[in-house]
Every structure is written in C-alpha cells, then in structure tokens.
Amino acid sequence: MKKFVAILLAAMMLLSVSAMAENIVKIGVYEPASGDSGAGGKQETLGVQYANLETPTVVIGGEEYKVELVYADNGSSTDKAPSAAQELVSAGVSVVLGSYGSGVSIAGSEYFKNANIPAIGLTCTNPQVTAGNSHYFRVCFLDPFQGTVLANYAFSTLGARTAYCLAELGNDYDVGLVTYFKQAFEDLGGTVISDTFPTNNSDFTSYLTNAAMYGADVFFCPVSIAYSTQILQQAASQGVEFPILGGDTLDSNVVAAAAVGTNIDLTIDTFYQEGANAAFDEGFKAWLNSDATALANNGGNDTISAVSVMGYDGYYVALEALKAAGTTDSAAVMAVLPSIEYTGVTGLIKFDENGDAVRTSAFVKKVNNETGAWEFVTEQTVE
Amino acid sequence: MWNTVFPYLLSGISVGGQYALIAIGYTMVYGILRLINFAHGDVFMVAGIIMVYMSASGMPLWVTIPLVLILTALIGFVIERVAYKPLRSAPRMSVMISAIGVSYTLQNLVLYVTGGLNKTYPTIPLISQTVTVLGAKTKAVTLVTPVLTLVLVLLLVTLINKTKIGMAMRAVSKDFETSQLMGIKINSVISATFVIGSFLAGVGSVLYFTNYPTVIQTSGAMPGLKAFVAAVFGGIGSIPGAVIGAFIIGIMENIIKGLDVILFKSGVISAPLGLSTFSDAFTFALLIVILIVKPTGLFGEKATDKV
Amino acid sequence: MSEMNQQELLLKVNDIHVYYGAIHAIKGVSFEVRKNEIVALIGANGAGKSTTLNTVAGLLKPRSGTITFKGENVTAVPASKMVFRGLALCPEGRRIFQQMTVRENLEMGAYSRPNAEIEQAMENVFGRFPRLKEREKQVAGTLSGGEQQMLAMGRALMARPELLMLDEPSMGLAPILVEQIFDIIRELHESGATILLVEQNAQMALSVADRAYVLETGSIGMSGPAKQLLNDDAVRRAYLGH
User: Fold this and answer.
1) pTM score
2) Which residues of B touch A34 (CB under 8 A)?
C-alpha cells in the first residue's frame, strides 16, 4: 500500500512538474451564466474573454505564462455562489475576477479570503463587497456614489419631487442602491416611496399601478436585467407616464431592446459610454461579429455593454498584479494589488484604502426608443 | 375608492385566470392518481419556451399557437408514460419523487437550450394590444383571460359530466378496480387526464407570457406553486374549487401588492407601510390557514382516500 | 343435474396459482361453469373466494394455470377487456360509485356496450329492480344497503354478461333483504342467466346453486351438486353451523 501511495505521489509530482513546464497561470472568472443576472454575467465575461484573446500570455518573474481562464457559474443566486467559489479555489486560481451582482460577490467572498486568493470585483457596486476585506478589490464605482448621481439627475434634470423605488427583496445590490438613492433624494428635498418584490416575481403591473397611484414623478428600479425587461414591457402596455430610472445593471442592450417601439423614457447611469475609446469599440465589435457564441451571449447584437468594458479592464489589472508580484502565488498577488495603477479603457484605475477604485464620474445614458441604442446624456461628476 | 382598487382587481382577475388554467392540471391529476404532479409548472414553462423558439423560426402565429398546444399536451402524455406509469403500483412517495425528478429535468433541459438567458415571448396581435378599461390601461389579454378561462372550464365540466370519457374519469378517480370491471382502460383515462391538464397549462402559458413576456427555466416555478396552492385552497381534486381558489389567490395577491396605496388613499394610514413585501407570504400563509381550519379545502370531499 | 352437465362449457379454471407478493393465496384451484348454471364457491373467510373471482375477472394475474372462457384462453386478458368478452363481476362490498346518481352508475355498467343499447338495457334493469327506477336521479351513496346491492347487481347486468359473477351479495344485509337478493338471483337463473356466486352464507348459496365448490385455504376441498353438499355432514358442520 505504501509503495502504491509513493508511486502515486511521484506521478502527481511529475504531472505538476510538467504543468509547470507549460507555465500556466489561472484566473478565475466568477460570474453568473444562468439565473436572473445570467445575461449580465455573460456580457461581463465577454470582456474578460476578449482581453484574454488579445493578451493570452503574461510575463511573470521573467518567464512567459499562458493565462488560462477558469469559469464558475454562481447562478445569480447566493445559495449557489459558495460552491462556485469553492470550484475556483480547488482549481488553484491565482486571482479571481467578478462577480456581476454584489450579493453573489459577498456570498463567495469568504471562500476566497480563506484560500488567500484576491478577488477583483468588476461591476459589483455595493460597499459591503470590499468593506473590511483586504482580499476584495474592485475597479468600478460604488453605490453611494451611484445613488447620489441618480438622485441628482432625477431631482435636477428630470425635476422629480416624488420618487417610487422598487427593489428585489433580499437582493443586496437592489436594496442597497435604493437606500443610497433615497438618502440623496431626500437630502435634496424629495419624497421617496419604496416597495420590494419577491424573487421570481413576474407580475409587476401592481407595482407600476402603485407608482402611478402615489403620483410618482420617476420610477427607480435598479434591478437585474431579467426583472427590468419585464418591468419595461409591462410599463409599456400599461402606458405609464413617469420616466424610469435604473442603475448600472440596466446598461444592457437586452434591456434597451425591451424599450424599443414604446414610449418608455428610460435613463441609467453606467461605467462606460460607447464611443469613448474608438479603438477598443472597433476591436470588440469585430470580435463579437466573428464569433457566433459571443454574439449570442451579448444578446444577439454588437452593442457594447459597459460591463464588458469593465471585464476587459479588470483582466488587465489582474495581469498587472501578476507581473508586479513576480509569481503566480495568490497571496503575493494580493499583497501587491493595493499599489497597482493601470490606465484602461475606462480611465485610471487605482485603489483606495478599502480596495475600491477611485472613481469620480459616471456616464448617464438614455435609451433611444426607435433604434434601441443608448444615447449619451451627460458625464455626471460627484466630489 | 373604486378607482383605486380597480386596477389591482383587474390584474388579479387576469393572473387568477392564468393560475386557474394551471391549477386544473394539478387538481385533475391529483383527483385520479393522488399525485401532486410537481412537473406541471415546468410543463407550463416549457410551453412558453417552445412558443419562443417556434416563432423565432418564422412560423406564423396561427400555426405556432395550435402547434404549441398540441406539443404541450404531448409532453404531458409522454411524461406520464415515461415517469409515472412504470410506478403505478409503487408507493405514492416514489411517484412524487419521480415527479420532482421530471421537474428538474425539464428545468435543466431548458437551461441547456437557452443558456440561462431570458427569452422574450413573441407578441401576439389582438391580445397584446393595450386597451383602456374604466381608466386603467392594460393589455387586452387581461380581459380575454377570465373569459377564456371560464369558457374552457365550462367545456371541461361538460366533458366530465356528459361524455363517456368524462364518466370514465370520474369513475377512475373514485375506484381503479371497479372502473376496470366496467371495461375502462385505466391507462387511457390517466393519459387523457394528463393531455387535458397539459393542454390547459399550454393555453395558460400563452395568456400568462403575453402579459409577462419573459421566459426562463424557472418561469414555471412561481405560477406553478401559486396554482398548486389554489388547488389545495379550493379542495384538491375539485375542478370548480381549483378555479375559484385560483381567482381568489390572484386577486388577493394583487390587492396586497396595492394595499398600501389603497389604505393610503382612503386615509387609513398616513405613510406607506411596505405591505407589498408580503404578497407571496400571504399566499403561503393562506395555505397554512386552510390546512389547519379546513384541511379538505373549500370544495374538497371528506373522504379523499380510496376504499 | 346430468342434463345440466351436458350444457356448453362457459368457464374453465385449470389449476391456477395466485400470489399477493410472497403470499401464496390460491394454490391450484380448478373448477368449471356451464351455461345456465348457478355455481357457488363457498368457504370460510380468507379461503380465497374473492381472490379467485378477481383472478377470473382479470384484476389479478395467476402465476400459473389457465382460465378458459367461451373456449378462449383468457388467462392474460385484463379486466377492462374481460367485460367486452361477456363477463361481469359484481364486486365484494358492492363498490358502487357513491358520488354518481343511480342512473350514472348504471351507465357506467354499460360502458362496454354501444350507446344505442344502453336505453334498452336500462329498461331491463329497471324492470327487474323497480326500486332503482324510483331512485333514478338519487345519488347512489344515499341508498340503503339493500338498494346499493341491487344497484351493484343492476350495474353488472347492464353489461349484458354471459357470465355474471356475484361476490358476497348478502354481505352486511338484514335477513329480509338477503331473502330478496336471493329471490332475484333465482329469477335471474330462471331467465337463463349463468351465475358464479361467492358466498359466506353457505346455506343460502347452496339453496340456489346447481353445483358448488368448497374452498379451503386456497384450494378446492369438496365439490358436487349443491343439494348433495347441503346434506353433507362435513359441510354442515363446517359451514352451516349444524
């Protein structure tokens, strides 16, 4: 028996040596590929995949490594998240990218922490993701910032005085963003009424009626793509008169498509506006159009979603960290991350003491009801 | 007051009719097999997915809608033959576990096919139009649903009371052995029950997804659960019970979603209380209350177990 | 009796063995029924009388042995097809459809018949059971025990069977009603019906039957003309309480 074990161990060592010879570094892609946020997760993953295609290798400690992406589907649900996180830990990734959705990021966080693996959030905007965690970083802005941007827009630009907010019950992202919006909007002197709906709900007609009954001037629903498309479709058939406002999650061509041919006035804030970096836009679109699976995952057309851009920048931040660490050891990568500075498509990314990217502006966009394209409204800055 | 309540009532009646069409499938299968067919909500969802893919293939609606209904009925038939018939003499628990298995199988098949992405249900002219009723704007399907539901229920009740197959269904639901002695082929009657139940779920899916036009693999879960509660509420095994239960649940759940507004507008409360959060909790609380106060439901028979 | 035996053989059961799971319930039972006969199967509780009838009716499958009906091997024919071949069982405990009306119950009995024949058959049954006619629209569950038995028999007759099998028709009935039921059995016999009768009330059964078989824990003990068994000492001691 002992002999057998010894042989087995030797074989495993040989295997691992041969793996080293190939020089592979693994980056975990912790994203939902199914569930309510599946569409968003896939778009975010597209950005990572495109960046990986563009830069498939990285030089670490003088040696060239091939970057292998390891995918784990957290199913958009906090109860599936732990096993997805465990998968990545078991796969031995050096750094994790993701997730789309703050709730699942928080749910997977401790598994990365225990394994000493740093995680870089791409678009999870809830403060809880990084708060008190030295292993979680993020490249996007935060909800208090976003809530303020949207409240300012609603109050000043739209002239709204009563806002109706709708969030999914128990969804950290939705509920958090509504709270920050409410604070900012009330500070400005407005009134906020908020409702929550249960998971898997698909009948939003009564919530829309509620908003109308309260005489809301704006309907704020920072919910996942799945719910927001349904809200838009039902709002259109109910002929609602108030504008609809959403957070970064609504920045998806899938959502925009739901508003085509309707009178819905839909405005959102987001991380990136198509056209800001022509070279990136062109390359990304060319790739989408050449790869049928990628195009399907992007919702069937080549509109660039901001989350894809964040995925793209996040991948390069991870590569920078690997280069700086000079090793594929995850703890070493974690140690160098706070000092990483990188200028990506979305601008300069550097981390503050919480591990959050320092961001001072957000793009506000509005859907075009005829073309389904997002049109730039303003770049809102908050100090 | 009426103007405040009416839009919620309208939503409730509409969704209630859709629950009713699903609930009939639960109650009929239970009536005959004493089986809670957990896969029924997923059959409803699959009907929606089939519709999405068929209309994407460019077939006209007058072809796709009948075809979807036929395919849905066929799916019900096949599920019964493959997953339940071989277990006819097995303990009821085994059949129930098989039903749960079918439910997951359907969900995962759809997950595989759709890649987990939401599918947008095709727009069906006429019933997708926006209409205005007493000042409330809604889709025409909201008005069509209760009418169509009642027509279908009347047809079904006539079928059950006046036709030979209906008589056979009633007989089989009471006594397998004696029904066989009368010359009734039990398996054909059970198949017919699944075909009818699935067909109605197919009709329900056309109406439901026209109102709420997004289909994903879990789309059947909530409506299925609500319809099941409706069937239990009305007295499982009873068709009128399931229909009435479904309307009550549909209406109550929408009223609760708007309760804050109604109370606010009528001056009972001065600020919203956030009661809408409890709309689903209400449905399940109602189930618990019913099970405690009247375990057989509104129209349930006292002795449901066979001799 | 000897002329009876000349009659055409209707049912022949040859050495059937029936199991309930591991329990060997019927251990090689053989008997036959000829046209226009009343044959009684008597025996104690649990002797296997009902099991035998249910097996003949096709509700149970024998593990071995054969059942021949009208010259055809029907051993593997299911119950739902046996009725189409002319065999009806009026089951133990009546098993009428409690929630249906009297009329609906009778219609159920004629499930195997073409629709055109139902009215005629219904008239025949009402002629034999005037009480059922009076209660035509009543829900069956509200009938008295005797009426329910009549309904069960009427329902079996609706199929116009060539062989009518009655399982414990007197069970749970008051003596006066038992008399009535047996009068009806006699009338049926006189009008030419063939009946296979299972009874615990051996006295009554033997008094109407032409021939009888005594079933003892899954196999046939004695058999012979009913009158002969009625006077047999062993039978009298065991089944007639003398």
Assistant:
1) 0.82
2) 111, 115-116, 217
